[in-house]
Design a protein that fits this description.
Elements lengths: L8 E5 L4 H13 L5 E4 L10 H5 L3 H5 L2 E3 L2 H4 L5 E5 L10 E2 L1 H8 L6 E5 L8 H6 L2 E3 L12 H15 L7 H4 L5 H15 L11 H13 L5 H17 L4
Parallel strand pairs: 1-2, 1-6, 2-3, 4-6, 4-7, 5-7
C-alpha cells in the first residue's frame, strides 16, 4: 500500500437548494473533508444561499467544482459509493457508513461518495456508476434523512477511521494453501498418535475430524502455519521417546 489514502470526495448529484449545499459543506469540514463536487445543481453555481448556511466552511464552497454528469465527476476515482435507502434495482454490495469508511481507509486510489437530490435521492443510473451502496440502518417506518445529515454520517465514520491502527503485513497475508494446512494437521496427528490421543479406537475418526475442524477454522496464513509447525517440532525434540 502506498502511503495514506486520500480523503473521499463528496459528490452532490443535482442538489436543489443552495442552503443544503452550504449545510453539506459545514458537515464535511466538521470532520476534515474539503473536496466537494456538484453535478448540475438546480439553481446553478455559485449560489448566494450556500455561504450563510455553511457557517464558515468557505474553503469547501470555494473549492467546489461543477460537472455535467456523475461519470465526469468521479472520472479520477477508483472507488465510488452511492448513498441510497433502497438498492434501486441494481445488485451491488451494500455497506453501512462504518463499513464503507473502513474500506476507504485502505483503498488504493481515490474514493468518492455520491449523494442524491433532496427530494428523490439518486436515480438508478446514478447508482449504476458506483461500485457499492451505502445504506444507513434507519427506522424502516421513517427513513427521512436530509442531505446534510447523510453527509455528516459518512464524514463522521470516515473521521473515526483515521484513529484506527492499520493492519500489519501479517494480518494482510492470505490464508495458507491447503497443502500447508494438511501438513500442519498431519504433524499434529503424528505427534499425538503415539501418545494415545486418538483413544478409544472407536472414536478415533471423530476425534481426528474434530481436530481438523479446530485447525482449519482460524484461516491461518503461511507464517502462522510455519510457526505452529515449529512449535510442534520443538515439542517433539524435547519429549523423551518411549
Amino acid at each position: 500500500m502506498s502511503g495514506t489514502p486520500e480523503p473521499p470526495v463528496i459528490v452532490l448529484v443535482r442538489p436543489q437548494l443552495g442552503e443544503n449545499i452550504g449545510k453539506a459543506a459545514r458537515a464535511m469540514l466538521n470532520f476534515g473533508l474539503t473536496e466537494m463536487r456538484l453535478v448540475t445543481p438546480r439553481d446553478g453555481w455559485p449560489n448566494p444561499a450556500a455561504g450563510p448556511a455553511a457557517s464558515g466552511a468557505d474553503v469547501v464552497l470555494a473549492g467546489a467544482r461543477v460537472f455535467e454528469s456523475v461519470a465526469e465527476a468521479v472520472s479520477d476515482c477508483a472507488h465510488v459509493y452511492a448513498t441510497t435507502v433502497r438498492k434501486r434495482g441494481v445488485t451491488k454490495p451494500v455497506l453501512t457508513p462504518h463499513e464503507a469508511a473502513g474500506e476507504i481507509h485502505v483503498n488504493e486510489g481515490r474514493s468518492a461518495i455520491l449523494f442524491g437530490p433532496e427530494r428523490s435521492g439518486l436515480e438508478t443510473d446514478d447508482v449504476a456508476v458506483a461500485r457499492a451502496i451505502i445504506t444507513v440502518p434507519i427506522n424502516p417506518e421513517f427513513g427521512s434523512l436530509n442531505l446534510a445529515q447523510a453527509v455528516i454520517l459518512c464524514a463522521y465514520e470516515w473521521s473515526r477511521g483515521r484513529e484506527l491502527v492499520q493492519p500489519t503485513m501479517e494480518e494482510l497475508l492470505p490464508p495458507a494453501p491447503q497443502d500447508e494446512l494438511e501438513g500442519l494437521i498431519g504433524h499434529f496427528e503424528a505427534l499425538l498418535e503415539p501418545r494415545g490421543y486418538f483413544f478409544p479406537k472407536s472414536r478415533a475418526a471423530a476425534t481426528r475430524r474434530t481436530l481438523r475442524n479446530v485447525l482449519t477454522k482460524p484461516g491461518w496464513n503461511h507464517l502462522e502455519v510455519r510457526t505452529l509447525r515449529g512449535v510442534l517440532s520443538a515439542i517433539e525434540k524435547s519429549t523423551p521417546r518411549d
